[in-house]
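Bench notes, bay 3.
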Amino acid sequence: MPRTMASNKYMSVLIRFLVAMFFTISLGILQQSEQWLPRPGFKPPPKHKSFQATSRLSLTKEFSPENDTSSNSSSQSIAFTSNVYSSADIINPKTSYQVNETIQIRIIARDIHNVVKTCGGDYFRVKLYTAETQSSWSIDVTKDLGNGTYIANVTLRWPGKVAVIVTLVHPSEAVRVLQRIRVVEPGKSIFTGRYSRTSDSGVNVFEDVMCLPKVIQNQPLCNFTDGRTGYPWFCVAPSNKNLSCDDWKLYTSDHKLCEKYTMEAISKEEQQIFKVHKLPIVNHPLPVNVIGDFNSWRKSVFAYQDSLPSCRPGQHLHNPSPSGFYSKNIWFSDQCKLRRFTKTDVLQCLQNRAVHIFGDSTSKQLYLEFANRYKPDIVGNSPKDKSERKAGPLYAKSAKFNISIHFKFHGFPARPSSFIRKETINYIVNELDDLKVDSRSVILICVGTHYTTYPLEMYEERMRDIKAAVQRLRKRSPQTLVVFKSANTREHAKLLYQLHNSEWYIRTLDLALREVLKDSPELAFIDAWDMTIAQNFKDNVHPNAVTITNLMNNFLSYICHEAPKPQ
């Protein structure tokens, strides 16, 4: 009996201990997920307060498949999907097809040992292409049967010999690695902040420290959390007694630490998986024969384009996928009637208007198109330094036509490649709340590329906040046009760029943005994703000039739906 009582007592203590441990671990996980996001009703501490940080998620934690519980495969025997052995074929093929006929492409994934895969998760993309007419159409494959087989429904949009190109963007094993390093150990972007001041004796004193959009483990910190949005930003406090938090002047990405922490997150065996990246399936269907005369078809497709409704806000809610195709490298939208703008058209369209562009360098590219292509009628300002040249604020004006174009980079965690002044970086939410607009104002927003190394929840939170700020702005000025542009494809010169900016990451951000905007008929949307996966040029984070022209035509078609009638 005493032994039983002791045993019961022991079990009671053990249960209490396990319950306590469960709540402690749960709280820790909750704190880790919350550290990237502003809390509701957040009131930041005093802006320039140095303090000792509490224990947080370490950036130096090592990863390998051995301690990765999300993967069942050993790093020594990763049989990842192969583009050489995988195959694609047309279901129920025919000798010829009609324009606008839909065909089904079946993809069967096989691994590097030529064994059929029994699970899904691979990232495939299908493109239709005719080189002679520079016609193309592309779609990300989303019908995953979960057993190594994928189905893509594709529509034949033009006549001629049409090649069917199936690309393995990432094997499923690479996707799992990307998921892990974003969710389990996020934030591989490390920043360097610089404190500097000139002493009374005229000596320039400076110190470089680590900065992050979250609390940094076991370091005295300067808290630069934004007082209006609650978005966190911390820098290690200066150790030099002649410097204080008030002396923070510059910041940049720390490329060496970014690469160190990112490459430590995957094993050498996992690195091999990423050699299969954006490679075409070797065993692909033969080109299909689509009946028809191209020149006659081309006349009809221009008539089809003109028959569509004018480009207006809310059409993204009913957006077909994909949203269009190229012919002779001209984008034909299936969503709305795109105008083809001449220089005269652009100047007439923008007369007496102010255009405000916020976002990353892909939206800056559209600003530069206005500032550089339409000289001398529209002239851009001369940036006063490299910081302003990179991040703005930039503006271009036309006195003759009363046009003004403005650009500002989005807020932290923007990833500049060299030091820029911290005051050139401002949160879009605050900019929109402070912006004076009227019925002739136009706003373009594009945010995405710089969020690929962070949890998806962080990006979703920022986009919801931006949408809320847009809604507040439109209460002040209901006729102001607001256009969101999706992210686009990009190049990946080395493995690090895949791990930081994989198109799988970019696509998840793109889908998250569409989800945020799905109940916003008052907003317009430019589908840069569809336009760049289908383009006939090499992928680049800053697309080819031809692709930019198509994006500009889309943007301007929202501003000026119809060409002015001849006098």
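Next record in the batch:
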Amino acid sequence: MKKSIKFIVLIGMTYCLWACSKNDVVVRYPKSTPSIDTVIVAESVITYGDSIHLHVGVSDKVAPLSTLAVKIVVNNDIVTSDVIRTKGNKASIKRTYAIPFVANRPDNTPVEVHLASTNVSGIEKDSMVSTTIAKRPLITDLYIVPDFGTGATAKLVLVNADSLIYQATGLLYGTSFSYKLATKVDKFKRIDWSGMVFGKVGDGIGLIDQTGESINATDATLVGISKFTFDALHFTTKLGGKLLEPVTTLDVIADLPPNPPTLINNTDFRGNNIYFGENVEVTFSGSGITTDLANNISPDYFEVTGTNTAKFLGKTGLYKAYYLTTANYLYIEPQPELLYPDALWVCGQGFGRPSKPYVTTSSWNWNSPLDYIPARLVSPGIYQITVYVQNTPGTDKWGTLNFKFFHKRGWWDGHEEWSTSYTVSPPFYATGDAGLVGNVVTLSTDIFDGVYRITLNKNDHTITSVKLN
């Protein structure tokens, strides 16, 4: 027992001697302050997105150095911070720091380099240099590029050079879409990634590469988004358009911008998204639309109530209104993405708008309302079109007038109404002939023209027509 106690005491004494010896090796230096001897930024002018090359020399004649803290500040924002370990009484540090192009980066702004050298005694020396000027990259062109299927690419115009505000008007976007902003596009109006591209970064907008995300835009209070504004200084956006309520007036010039981008052949068209209300009377104005209102608006969608007024017949909702200036005629159609059973779409040849002077304009294309016509859902399962038709002899038993009902605006294999499933009344017929399978056709020997109201009835599987004039 005595031996155990002696051993424990011996251990304790040994620890005390070791601890005292350790305290004796702590070196205390006379008070001194580090010196920041050299601060060199290689670049005098940079463009946001470039990097600066920093060379710092620090020393302390008495106490060894400990750390060098670096903060890069632009427009009162800390771009980056760094803490570098320094040893001995002298150190030379070289670092490269990127100066990204982000929001709140004005032109010709000083890049501030804040330094703090600390020695082992905890004494610090601060310094700041600002010898570099950062410039904004030049944006000569800017485009809004919606994701595929949500709208057409449009160029933004610099409307306020001092505040760097860019704007596009006359857009025909829905109330919700996704997009990127690009400074370059190719001949197909798709993004050219050799230029700057803005997309979703975190909760805001920033520069992205090809792996980056699109920006989402939504405003359910609007009929559609017809105006888009981008603040290139703060990287913020604003959406604009007509408020979502049925229109009671429509000026075909003031309310319908020229060259609607949703049409391929749009030269003579004006167009916009318009929110119509069922049975709501609309007062028309602009150009010569009211010279003969019944002749100048779609009879499938309007019932004329006065010299410049008409009641909307379709379901309440958002429609495309396209005014053909050369014909003084207003086409109305549902949104392009509207599918069966909410609508059918008729494409073919030998028909045109039911408006004097009568002319056939249709073709097997979907470029503009000249090519096709929407069939309005007038009641469950019943669809109607009113068109001018003209049938002339063809190369065989069928005439030149033939068409088909489709489930969408555009080609969609297998999604169409086949005439062979219907009882079709003359002067129209069904056919299963090669090249015309499922089309509504006419006889080559039956020469006629006129305005017809054609009805497809899904309930009793009939296609009937009435000649109006």
